[in-house]
Amino acid sequence: MRGWWREITGLVLPAACGGCGRPRTELCGGCAAELAVAPERVRPMPEPAGLPVVHAAAPYENAVRAVLLAHKERGALGLAGALGGALAGAVRAGTGWMGGEGPLLLVPMPSSRVATAARGHDPARRIAFAAAAELRRGGLPARVTAVLRQRRAVADQAGLGARARQENLAGALEVDVRGGRLLSGGRVVLVDDLLTTGATLAEAARAVRTARPAGGRAVPLSAAVVSASPSAFELNRN
């Protein structure tokens, strides 16, 4: 009900820019431009073991940070299109896709049932669907394959350092029973809205690698996010 109500009110109530608050527009041109930059490879420090190559569209600061929070925490669902477009750019930058490899399989990081219920939507999954649609419009076969799930409860990550996040998430994710088969037919791209320490993506990569069918070839694996901390950009440039 909460998600349905947000969808309706988003259509009939006056909007303000999710990035700067400018009235009568959900996303102004200036804030949209901060999302439409050239994606780069990012690396957190310390880099968790097993983390695949990650590309991000923009640093997590200023308007980008505000837009992500507006979509994730305040239910500005109309921002998913712009965020999905930014994520699609990061996917393109990281895959080096060539014909014959099968489709791009976008695997969003799962939200807990509690978090989804509290927000009224699943932010990463919504952005992933928008990104897949954008990739298809550009001629790339892409689909969302939401096969990851939490196999046990985890503590709230807010306020935890890199090591504590890795310990909190170790063994927490798994691919559902049909997932190994679904992931065997294309190139897997783990996707999320934000990279902080990389612990979630590293755990997701472990789960995906573990789930491949017995005797099957290694799953081609990369990751893409809308945003990452500015330091993750700087580390790769140096």
From TrEMBL:
Task: Supply the SUPFAM superfamilies for this chain.
Answer: PRTase-like
Name of this protein: ComF family protein
The record's annotation in InterPro entries points to:
ComF/GntX_DNA_util-trans, PRTase-like, PRTase_dom
Spell out the CDD domains in the cross-references: PRTases_typeI (cd06223)
Annotated source species: Streptomyces halstedii
At the top level, the lineage of the source is Bacteria
Family from the record: Belongs to the ComF/GntX family.
Q: Where is the Phosphoribosyltransferase domain?
A: 172-214
Tell me the Pfam families matching this sequence: Pribosyltran
